[in-house]
Structure formats: structure tokens, C-alpha cells
Specification:
The protein is α+β, with helices and mostly antiparallel strands. Helix content is 44%, strand content 14%. It has five domains: 60 residues, Classic Zinc Finger (Double Stranded RNA Binding Domain); 77 residues, Double Stranded RNA Binding Domain (2-Layer Sandwich), CATH 3.30.160.60; 54 residues, Double Stranded RNA Binding Domain (2-Layer Sandwich); 80 residues, Double Stranded RNA Binding Domain, CATH 3.30.160.60; 52 residues, Classic Zinc Finger (Double Stranded RNA Binding Domain, 2-Layer Sandwich), CATH 3.30.160.
Amino acid sequence: MQANMKAKPHSCEVCGSSFALKSTLLNHRKTHTGDKPHSCEVCGSSFVRKSNMLRHIQTHTGEKPHFCDTCGSSFARKSHLLSHMKTHTGEKPHSCEVCGSSFAQKSTLLCHMKTHTGEKPHSCEVCGSSFAIKSSLLSHIKTHTGEKSHSCEVCGVSFAWKSGLLSHMKTHTGEKPHSCEVCGFSFARKSHLLHHMKTHTGEKPHSCEMCCSAFALKSTLLKHMTTHTGEKPHSCEVCGVSFAWKSSLLSHMKTHTGEKPHSCEVCGSSFARKSNLLSHMKTHTGEKPHSCEVCGSTFAWKSNLLSHMKTHTGEKPLSCGVCGSSFAWKSILLNHMKIHTRRP
């Protein structure tokens, strides 16, 4: 104890902490008094220590003097560089006592612990949503402000989050690192791969409360719901036609621009929509995946199967507005209408 007193002879009268240097004790006392004499001239933030203020200044100057020898990344603070180095060494010295997960940084461990405690101390002042991590709150705030600070240098599209920009960049590079182990399809985003996997498992967890139809993706369910509400919020600025889905509007716009970006590798025919190209390909492959359960006839397109089914059901949903005659198919109704329009 006496040896420690000699090594750290300067003691804090408030909490008893000891220091080797009197200057360190004086700085420490400010943590009790709340004194922050060092202010940033740019934003007005105040700090107990001058060294903390100097580090803060780098957030305004963009100065990053600490470089990683392995990958060349640069950092404003040496502590950030040291934390980064663990991504190369794989070192994870901080372990969770609850589940055993290991982390490179103690701060990451502390954030992880909140998944066990359920603690969400960071609340949004706008909508009241709570978050375990302050960074998640800051990201959430952008949904209210509309801030999109991350811009693509290739096409100029802006994103609220850096992760969104990084995912978007793959549309320019063509990178698709996430592959399906079942069929080999590759995807730019992991979320797209997870959605795709449901086509193999048949999982459809999202159900419509009105008609009980089930869907693999929540986004597909939301699109389906517009068939019940009749909502068509997406309007064409050229001709005024409205659509339930934005994707339908974008496809429609090609009828005005004449754009046909999807080409057949067999015969060179071009199409405005990828779905049309896929349908066209069946004319080359002879594929007829849609079968009639009544007579076994097969069809390349589902629409043809549905039309065929009317020969079995006798359904004639299309009526002539002049004489009331009913027809199963629109083409026959249109031919019939000619007998009314012919001149005597």
C-alpha cells in the first residue's frame, strides 16, 4: 500500500482515486465539478481535456493520420486503428457471459448484452420508437428527416445509409456474392437470397386477411392488398394511367420511351419487360408447364390455361352491350361486335 502511495502520491479528495502526476489529478477533478474549459471553435462542443478537444477537431477537418499497414484504411484516432486491426487478426477477446459470443471490441460486447436484457435506452423524440444502440437511433432518425447523405458516384442516387449505398454499388459492378445452394442462382444482396430460398421451401408466412392468399414475401402481400382496396397511387405523367405498383408504372413507361432492354439470345427479339422475354423463350424451348386438371392439355402460359378452362366450365363472363350475348373469350366478343357495327 505504501509503495502504491509513493507511485501515485496525488489523491482525489472526492472519490479517492490516486494519480502519479498532479496535473492528471487536476484534470480528473473536473469530472466532479463538470468544468469543461476547452471549447471547439467550429461547433461549440466543450471538453474537460485539451487532448479530447484536439481529437474532436479531426471530425471537422477530416484528418485521419493513423493508417492500417494491412489494408490502407485510415483513422482519426489511434484507438480506432487498434480496434480495426482486430478485423485482420481475428482477435475477439471480449466474450458474452450469457451465450458465449465473442467480439473484437468491448463496446460491441456491451451493445450485444442489450439483446439479453432487452434494454432500449435510446428513444426517438418524433415517434417514440426505442433502440438498444444509439447508432440505430441515428439511422432511424433519417426516416423522419429524409436525409440521404450517401451518394453513388456513378449515377448520383442517394441513400440514407451507407449499407444501402454499398448494396446499390453492386448494380454497377455486377457483383453477386450470395449464391443459392439449391439452384445456383446468385444475388447481390443476402436478403434477396433469403427471399429466393422460400421458392424452394414453399414457405408462405404472409397471409391476406381478406381472401386467405398466402405469400412468401411481405412486400408481395402488400402489393396484393391493393387488389382489394383498388388503390392505384402510381400515375404516369405522360398519359395519366394509374397503377397499383410502382414496378408496373416503370414497365408501362417503356411503352412511351420504346425501350426494350430484354433481348432473346436465340432469335434477337427484344422486349420491354423481362417477364415477356421469359414467356417468349417458351416458344423456343417448347416448355408447357401449365396443365389442365380436367383433360390433361398443357399450355406454355397460365393465361392460356385459364382461357381453356372455360371450355370445361361453360363460363361466359363477357357480354355484348348491344344484344346481351355472352362469350367466354374477349376475341370472340370483339368479332361478334362487328355484326352490330356493319353498315346495312
